[in-house]
Design brief:
Layout lengths: L1 H12 L4 E6 L2 E7 L1 E3 L4 E7 L3 H7 L3 E8 L4 E12 L2 H7 L2 H4 L11 E16 L2 H13 L7 E7 L1
Antiparallel strand pairs: 1-2, 1-5, 3-4, 4-7, 5-6, 6-7, 7-8
Length: about 160
């Protein structure tokens, strides 16, 4: 089940645009990710001089929280941040959303690429809103608890 859940985790990340990233020195903040399973990484674009960039320079531990009903995934992910100097990877993940944050776009001197390598995660997979509503209604009419999907712990 863990391999299936891990596959589902990576697949569903593509349908989620952002989560909350934090480090021991950076409080939780909304960050857009690009998930690349082939890299076993989540990628973030931030600006030089931010506390996320500074934490990544030191290889800090990070925590990324995802809560998405439309993506049918809730997760608390732990991992290691790193500052990555890879222009090809930056080109690969660059987007109009990232460009909106930088005056000179992709070639702005402040652009900074951060990798987040997950080490473990607690994950809840749901079956969608319709199934959730059905299960909640069923639970209220019976003495059963709702079956809202799968829950598990992943190690990467």
């Amino acid at each position: 089940m863990t391999d299936t859940m891990k596959d589902t985790f990576w697949d569903r990340l593509d349908d989620i645009t952002a989560g909350m990233l934090s480090t021991p020195t950076a409080p939780p903040r909304p960050m857009a990710h690009v998930a690349k399973r082939k890299d076993d990484m989540l990628w973030f674009i931030t600006a030089k001089g931010t506390d996320i960039e500074e934490a990544a320079q030191g290889g800090a531990q990070g925590h990324y929280t995802l809560a998405s009903s439309h993506g049918q995934l809730y997760a608390a992910v732990e991992g290691t941040l790193s500052l990555v100097n890879d222009p090809d990877k930056l080109d690969e993940i660059w987007s109009p959303m990232a460009a909106a944050w930088f005056e000179d776009g992709r070639h702005d001197d402040k652009v900074c690429l951060v990798g987040f390598k997950p080490t473990k995660a607690e994950v809840w997979e749901t079956d969608g809103t319709a199934k959730t509503l059905f299960e909640m209604a069923r639970a209220n009419m019976t003495e059963d608890t709702p079956d809202l999907g799968k829950h598990g712990h992943l190690t990467f």
